[in-house]
């Protein structure tokens, strides 16, 4: 058993996972460990902390580390390169491990397979066009400070590049990072958040992160469908009922805004703000085209304030299309919008 650095032992076996002290000194890598496999085995088996080579405490003894002896378990999560995550260990008497993220980063350990590393310095390109989904990817890249090239691809004449990199859905956006391709806007946002340094887009807290993902799915799976059908259904009693349903969905989204904060992500734009960005930037354009108002300040004061705050952010403004250009581009598609709304309504 290594006595030069803290180690974690599982049962009677001697394999080692690296730990770091509070000062970040004495880090040692156990090259024999296959990270993902062994981490799963450690957590599923339960661990006992051997601080600086000391023996495990006896059953029933309180093993909570003191403020002076707390160590940090450092491990590498697949898909999170080039960042690592520090976790503060708390080992209660039942020996169940609890991990709490601290949002600090260290230089990654050398990996046996260099192909698993994220090529952060590789060229970044984004296949896109005038679309609220492309905006999601663009604003994520800009918030992270990632330079990128926008490759405009018209949906009426899809390029071979788009079809090669998104053969399943054949839609934009598609992110090209070196020789890797990532389709689907929200998947791209999560990839950008994990692959590049910069302010986090998803919350560190697991519950808050799960909630952000849930409401992002709500925006795509429920809210936009309700808005779209209400916007493009012919006037009448059916449209009135659909508009009421769409406003109820807007109310549900509005309720997720933290009180006293500018954005869903708190004081800075986060994952859910990006997911809902179409409500701030594109819904007003569609409302003008359709002659229908769904988001009004009298009924949704907080959501309207959020929409204004989001649209006014300089980073957002840098990748927001000109409103006049948007209307000129979208107006000829009104007939198609009505057709898709009718098809969507039939599936709801």
Detail the topology: elements first, then pairings.
Elements: E1 7-9, E2 19-20, H1 35-45, E3 48-50, E4 72-75, E5 85-90, E6 98-101, E7 124-128, H2 132-143, E8 149-152, H3 160-165, E9 174-177, E10 180-183, H4 185-195, H5 206-232, H6 237-254, H7 271-275, H8 277-281, H9 283-290, H10 301-312, H11 314-317, H12 323-330, H13 334-347
Parallel strand pairs: 7-8
Antiparallel strand pairs: 1-3, 2-4, 4-5, 5-6, 7-9, 9-10
Helix pairs in contact: 2-4, 5-6, 5-13
Question: What brief labels describe this structure?
Answer:
about 350 residues, alpha+beta, 4-stranded antiparallel beta sheet, 4-stranded mixed beta sheet, globular, disordered N terminus
Model description:
The protein is of the alpha+beta class and 348 residues long. 41% of the residues lie in helices and 11% in strands. The strands form three sheets. Strands 2-4-5-6 form a four-stranded antiparallel β-sheet, with no helix packed on it. Helix 2 (132-143) runs parallel beside helix 4 (185-195), helix 5 packs antiparallel against helix 6 (237-254) and helix 5 packs across helix 13 (334-347). It is globular and about 55 Å long.
